[in-house]
Amino acid sequence: MAGNFRSYIWDPVLIICQIVLMQCVYYSFLGLWLAGVDGLVHSSRSLDQIFSYDLLGFATMQGRLSMMAFILNSLTCALGLWFFVRRGKQCLDFTVTVHFFHMIGCWIYNSHLPSALSWWLINVACIALMAVIGEYLCMRTELRAIPVNTGPKSNL
User: Fold this and answer.
1) CB 134 within 8 A of CB 95
2) Which run of H or of E encompasses 19?
């Protein structure tokens, strides 16, 4: 009996459900972070904050606060990876998938590929943060000590 430790069974339904769940986590927490930022500075909420390339930038206060919301969202999505995916090896895959679908959504919303350098920089930074922190949390859980002896101890 070799090779049964940590065997991974291919389950496409589970993977698709995890992708959908991570997209829901991504957009719901991004919406919450943006609503919190908008509440602080009393600005109006719109889908442009999520999907527009031009809004993210260093020049305006709204752009900097939106970038902060994206960074904070990557931290909460890392918790989502830890809670729902639970595999360190898959954190980068799910992170890139979430951001790839976000890029597709932005492309559809704006009718062209992103051209703003700030959009690319913030998304690369968010991918790195989400993947590294998610993998760290998952690896801590995976490497937790497994109790071998659960019976009563005897005195020798």
Assistant:
1) yes
2) helix 12-41
- Rounded to whole angstroms, the Cα distance separating 73 from 129 reads 10
For 62-94, the pLDDT digits (tens) are 888 899 999 999 999 999 999 999 888 899 999
Task: Tokens for 133, please give them.
Answer: 């922190």
**In this structure, which amino acid lies at residue 121?**
L
pTM across the whole model: 0.84
Other CB atoms within 10 A of residue 106 CB: 18
Residue 1 CA neighbour count, 13 Å, CB half? 3
Query: Do 96 and 81 form a contact (C-beta atoms < 8 A)?
Result: no
Task: Tell me the one-letter amino acid at 105.
Answer: G
Concatenated DSSP letters of 51-106: H-TTT--SSSHHHHHHHHHHHHHHHHHHHHIIIII--GGGHHHHHHHHHHHHHHHH
CB 36 within 8 A of CB 25: no
